[in-house]
Description:
By secondary structure, the protein is an alpha+beta fold. The chain has two domains: 2-188 and 316-370, 3-Layer(bba) Sandwich (FAD/NAD(P)-binding domain); 193-306, no CATH class. It has helices spanning 14-19, 69-76, 81-92, 111-120, 175-179, 238-252, 283-291, 352-370; strands at 2-7, 24-30, 53-54, 97-100, 103-106, 127-130, 133-137, 142-147, 150-155, 158-161, 184-190, 194-196, 207-216, 219-230, 234-236, 260-265, 268-269, 272-273, 298-306, 314-319, 336-338. The strands form six sheets. The protein has a six-stranded antiparallel barrel with strand order 12-15-14-13-16-19. Strands 6-2-1-10-21 form a five-stranded parallel beta sheet, with no helix packed on it. The protein is elongated. The termini are close together.
Amino acid sequence: MxxxxxxxxxxxxxxxxxxxxxxxxxTIFDKKRKNDILARRILVAGNGRCNFFNEKLLNSDNxxxxxxxxxxxxxxxxxxxxxxFFHYLTDKLSxxxxxxxxxxxxxxxxxxxxxxxxxxKIDSHISVNFNDVIKIDRIKKEVTYIANEKKSVKPYxxxxxxxxxxxxxREVDYSLLDSLRIPYRxxxxxxxxxxxxxxxxxxxxxxxxxxxxxxxxxKIIYSEEGEVLFKEDGLSGIVxxxxxxxxxxxxxxxxxxxxxxxxxxxxxxxxxKLISDLSAYPKFLIEYLKKNKIKNSKLLFHFQDFYPFKDSxxxxxxxxxxxxxxxxxxxxxxxxxAIGEVLDVNLPCGGYNIGSTLIESxxxxxxxxxx
Length: 371
């Protein structure tokens, strides 16, 4: 049998590992860490609930927004892959789930449910190697890694490159990506809290719901309702993390940080309108409004920077998806597949990132099964 090497032990490695062990000798490489377990980030996804999919991924009409349009041709070009994957997960593998709005969760509302379920499906004969890969030679078709402080080499016939980005607990190191000799956009933190120029120390740990808008040169370009969590020197919360994706896009397009600001209008939320006077306001808000001489219901904050990678949920940047065929193989090297966070595809919170990664891994699995 041919040798299939998978670089990265995240969720994107699981579907190929589950389905291809009868066709390939499979070796999964993941970084050496204190606790050597595959796909450990599933366990912390969605604050331990793991919203693993979003309903909007199932309909091609939803892919015209900037963060999904790059995937539209890949997911719907040859067949309806999102729905095919979902039927594979729920019908063939018999995974149980429930749904809240557009979000899909494991039936027991716990990340460990989907984690244990997928891990249990992996063939015990698959080799899992918890050692750092330092180089991929596409000419020799070899992977170089460090084992017991010595260099070792693993040959391959096919390789899936899915090391993830630099978010959460990963070190910033481009050497492995550089060894592929494939163009990529340098990473920056995304789905991440943001630092602002205004002093927010007095608001620390307070929460405020409202309509949050992203402004460029004082003009609103995007708005989303949600709850903001104030930090010592910035803003957090799902709505702010989603805004960080748009801010990354603005910076990529050449806008200066000084031109970007965030407005929180706390007078409207989910169709309800604030009509009470200051007597109904929480104390922290009254004090902040008075101190900063704000006489309306809109708080304005000027973007300064992102929080570091360790505070981010994903990384923004990666391999240009236009360099890949519709099966996620490289146009330069048909034996190399790239999927997951290492791609320059950047999605908001709400099941999009895990969901799209699972669809990508399903497409690659299907393609490798035919070969």
